[in-house]
Amino acid sequence: MAADTSVEILQKVLENEILQTAKVVEEHLDAEMQKLDQMDEDELEHLKQRRLEALKKAQQQKQWLSKGHGEYREIPSERDFFQEVKESKNVVCHFYRDTTFRCQIMDKHLTVLAKKHVETKFLKLNAEKSPFLCERLRIKVIPTVALIKDGKTQDYIVGFTDLGNTDDFTTETLEWRLGCADIINYSGNLMEPPFQSQKKFGTSFTKLDKKTIRGKKYDSDSDDD
């Protein structure tokens, strides 16, 4: 008898919880319907556009992910580089070397940014295994990050000179530098480099013209640990 009574009590409790949940859902739906009824045509059109934009964004992100965006990946060969670049509008490719410590620093930041900026493809390629590309792109300092838009190399980050000239630069600093090249969707202020507000990073930075970046002579120390 006691067991039967406990089961009945439990059933009543569950039924009551289900009724309460249903009531909350019903009230929420009623509120949403009332809100829609009170909207004028302009508000309804605005809501429709917002939902269409959200669907479009979701579909776009799905396409990006199918092309290998959203993660920082190593590609095995120069041939793979051309195929990867062909598939995506915006590509960031880090030319690295196993024995260069600064390449590991760059890896850490690019791993974070690849997940944040799925609109851009983030890759890495061993410079010692891609001599043709390094010669063609005039890559002499390691690490070098090539910034590629529509299949054409638009800009380079050579060493850490543009990142506050320190091994301790932040992910936000690298993100800002990529934003300057319009290779990611950057929401910050391009006129204010993140490292300017940090005294230990020293002097202010002036945005370099792309031709200056490509033609500038860099200290060979950037190539060593």
Highest CATH level, the class of the domain at 69-217: Alpha Beta
CATH architecture of the domain at 69-217: 3-Layer(aba) Sandwich
CATH superfamily of the domain at 69-217: Glutaredoxin
The CATH topology of the domain at 69-217 is Glutaredoxin
- Across the major sheet, the strand order is 1-3-2-4-5
Strand content: 5-15%
What is the end-to-end distance?
Answer: 79 Å
Shape: elongated
Order of H and E elements: HHEHEHEHEEHH
Helix percent reads 40-55%
The strand count comes to 5
Give the oligomer, counting copies of the same chain as homo and different chains as hetero: single chain
Structure, described:
The chain is built from seven helices and five strands; from the N terminus they run ααβαβαβαββαα. It has 225 residues and is an alpha/beta fold. It has a domain of 149 residues: Glutaredoxin (3-Layer(aba) Sandwich), CATH 3.40.30. Helix 4 links the parallel strand 2 and strand 3. It is elongated. It starts with a helix and ends in a 10-residue tail after the last helix. The C terminus is likely disordered.
How would you summarize the topology of this molecule?
Layout: H1 2-38, H2 41-66, E1 72-74, H3 78-87, E2 90-96, H4 101-116, E3 121-126, H5 131-136, E4 144-149, E5 152-158, H6 171-180, H7 210-215
Parallel strand pairs: 1-3, 2-3
Antiparallel strand pairs: 2-4, 4-5
Keywords: Coiled coil, Cytoplasm, Cytoskeleton, Nucleus, Phosphoprotein
Main location: cytoplasm
Subcellular location: Cytoplasm, Cytoskeleton, Microtubule organizing center, Centrosome; Midbody; Nucleus
